[in-house]
Each structure stands twice: as structure tokens, then as C-alpha cells.
Amino acid sequence: MARARISKPKVRSGCFTCKSRRVKCDEAKPVCLRCIRAGRECAGYPDSLSYRLQVAPANDSISTYNIPFKVPGSQADRQLLHYYCSQVALSLASYSDPSLWTELILQRCHHQPVVRNALVALSSLHKDFQCEAPPVVDELKRAHRLVASPASLTMIAKSHRQLARYLSRPDASADVALICSVIYFICEALLGDSQQAIWHLDRGLVLLKRSQLSGNFDATSSDDPLVPRLTSLFEQLDCQACTFDDQRAPILVLSPPPELNDRASIVPEQILDLGHAELILIKLQNRVFHHLVSSVIFKGKPLKDLPQSLIQERLLLVADLQHYGDLLDVFAEWVGYSTESPPSHSGGFDERSRQQWKRYLLLRINYHTFYHLIKDCSMDFSLNTGVPSAPTSEMIANIKSDLEMDLKIASDAVSWILPRTTTPQRTYTLSSHLIAVIYFVGAKTTSATTRHKAFELLAHPSLSHSRDGLWDAQTASFFLTKMTRKIRRGPTLISLTTSGMQSKYDESSVQHPDQLPIANCKGWSINLALSIRRSRRCPRPD
């Protein structure tokens, strides 16, 4: 009696020669030993990850799946992993180095079931986010919460339990836990729970910091390409969480203690490339946030009572940001980038160069808005004397001009970078900064025209139902609207006198409520994280 053939999964990772001959490949590298023994020339192996990602179709409906490796589990799991390869990875990698999401994490997914199942859960939740009907106007209070499917929530809970079991093993690796930390951060951001998202992020940041101190996850010495890219992502998200919640101090300290003690500049003499420019700005932002949080105890005190060291550090930070802006201008001129118009194919820019230009434009927006915010906090300081000076009409005009420029660049970015559409589309990116920039401009401006333009941008079809990391466009628009209504009902405003003390704003001198700055509305915070927490504890009808 003939024995039944044992069923085995088809191997798709063999060399081209063995595939064409329909024989099993031994997958020896760099050439197949089976071909060598048979006297044949081995044609080599496909670039499994990048090749599959390039050819994977980007359709919403999945009829077939094509993933880089054989995956255990159900057909639904394999389809979701295909969905990750074709849509989620490219969405998360928007306007940044794509290799982390499209290659490196997928490689860990091949060998680590914990990472693979976390990606499957993320894909299911992302699919819920994409397929959910955008909320209508009268549902804005719930716009920041996603009603996920029971299957997605079950997958997330299962992934959490699997990670807990993995971490109890003696051979548990830090990189697996860090990858899962970022994935869970994204999952909670998609669900609209920013507080829980930051909790997952903070746990990952603490682990990253501990691993760096022990030398197990050092971006400067590791040969693993995942380490510097994942480290950079954590540094970006650490700063993003601080912009979302300005009461939060960064977990990471990116400036070594000697630099902080000596008050030395952390900006180099030149920018080498776009990635280098991004790393410098992250380092500057990290230092600024540490400085602002440490100096909050002096808020409202006259300038004469402030420590001289605090004043000097504030002025040095402003100078560093100014120097960085000058270097960014030089770099842009050197590579031919412009903020006036997008590069054209006729000008010698291929598609990769256009993507790099988009990345530069978003970096420019992020820098310019951040520079304005720190400069606004420092306009009372005199660089030469360190004594208070009254805000002049020229200073106020410069701030207004800065805000208008921020909004113009953001408006251009929405037109040039985001997909052109006439119907609202739900998209999720990780670090474009567009929603945050528009929100802060709308909150800080005293111009009704500028504020109206900010609302128009948040209502743009390409942006109105989007999320970027922790930032949700509809939530930002909702709270800006609520702040504006509060002002129109008769706010109490605050401003700074020449002594630095807070005093009541002379409301009789203001003719139009729309010209009042939302940021000066006493009793209302432009801290979006705080506003969301308050609204959930004490929901009130408008």
C-alpha cells in the first residue's frame, strides 16, 4: 500500500533556479548548494521584503494576499498581514524613512510571533479606522473615539497577554518589547485614547532609557539597522507627546549633562542631510521642553525674581533655534528646495526627490512653528542686559507675521503634500505635525482672518478626518471652536505687563471678539490633552 504524501507548506523563499526546476532549494547563501552540486548556475534569491512591498497592491478590499513569508495562523491573520504590507506600513512611514515599517519591523515579524500578532492586531484596528464612516457635525464630541470591532479588541487583548508571557522569559529581547510599545501606542491613538497611548509610549521610553544605559540598545554602536531608526522614532514621539500635553516632561534626555551645565550650543556648523536636520531639531525640541517644564514654577513671577541661569538658557535656546534656521536655509539652497512651489519633473526632480522635498517642507513647518512658540515666551528678555523690556508694537507685529507665515506654509503643505480629494478620507500618519501646527496657530493668533483660515484647513477634505500620532483634526477643530465661543460669551483675558506679572486685559479696547487671542483666555487651556480629560470628566452641552 502506497504511503500518503505528507502535506507541507509551499516554500517561496528558494533561489530562482530551483523554483524554475520545481525542486526544493536548500536556501544556502549566497548561492544554493543544490545548484552547485548539480553543476548549474544559481540565479540568486529575490529581495523578499522590499520586492514584495513594491508589488503589493494597495486596494481596500483584499481578495488575495501576498506576504513576504509563510505565516502560521488563520487565513484572516494572513490577510491582515497583507493589509499591513500594502497599506498600514506605507501610511506609518509617510514623510519619513520608510525602512523601519516596510522592512526592519517585518523582519522581526518573521522571527518573533509576538511582533507578528501585534501587527495583525494593529492592521485589524487600522482597517476599522479606515472603514468607519466619518462622524457628522453633531457627533463632534465623540469624533476622537473609534468604535472598534470586537475582533480587533480581542486581538489587542491577546497580543498584550502574549507580550506579558514573552517578557517573563529569561531570553526576552528589548527590541521586541520596544516595537510592541510603539504598536500599542498607535493602537490607542487610533482608538482615540490619547492618555493610554502616552502611557504605552512612556513605558517604552523608560525601557529604552534603561537599555541604553546598560549598553543593550545603543544607536551609536549597534550594527543592527533597527536600533538607530527605532530610537529616532521614540525621540520624535517623546517630543510629540510634549506638544500634545505641555505639562509632560520628556522621558529622554538627548543633551548630555556637560552641554547642559556649560550652556554650550547643540547645533553643529552644518547640516549634512535631511535625516541629520531632523535629528538636530528633535534634540533642540527635547532640550526646550526640559527647560520649559523645569521653569514652570517661576511662571507669573517678575523677571527680577527669575534665576539668571534660567534667563541665559532661554536666550541660548532662542539663539540655537535661530542658528538652526539659518543652517536649514543654507541646506535648502544647496539641494534646491523651495517653499514657494513644489519641485517639477522638468526641473530634474524624480519621485524620490519629490518625497524628500515633502519631508523637508514638513520639517520646515515644524521648526518654524516651534521657533515662534519659544521666541514668544522670550520676547521680554533683553539679550544684552537680561532686564525686562515692554512688548513693542514691532514685536507684536513680528509675532503676527510669524503666525501668518506658519499658516501659509501649512496651507501650501496641505495642497502639495496630502492627496487631492473632494470627499473626506480617513488617514493615519505618525509624524507630519500638520494638525498640531494649525491648532497652535489658531489658538495663538489675534487675527480673525488667520483663525478663520486655520478652521478652513482643519476642514479640508484631505485633513478633516485625519489623525497624526496623538493629534486628531476634528478634535482640534472642536476645541478651537469651543474656545472661540467661550471668548464671544465674555472672557477674562490675561497679558504680561512690563514687570512680567499677569494683569487683566483691557477688554474695552477690543472692538471685535474674533480678534482676541484664544491662548489668553483665562480659565481655558490650549493644552489639548488637558482639555480632552476635562471634557470626559465634565461633559457639558454647548
Automatic annotation (TrEMBL):
MF (Gene Ontology): DNA binding; DNA-binding transcription factor activity, RNA polymerase II-specific; zinc ion binding
Domain of life: Eukaryota
Residue span(s) of domain Zn(2)-C6 fungal-type: 14-42
Entry keyword annotation includes Amino-acid biosynthesis: no
Pfam families: Fungal_trans_2 (PF11951), Zn_clus (PF00172)
Keyword Lipid metabolism attributed: no
Keywords: DNA-binding, Metal-binding, Nucleus, Transcription, Transcription regulation, Zinc
Gene3D superfamilies noted in UniProt: Zn(2)-C6 fungal-type DNA-binding domain
Protein name according to UniProt: Zn(2)-C6 fungal-type domain-containing protein
Organism expressing this protein natively: Exophiala bonariae
Taxonomic path: Eukaryota, Fungi, Dikarya, Ascomycota, Pezizomycotina
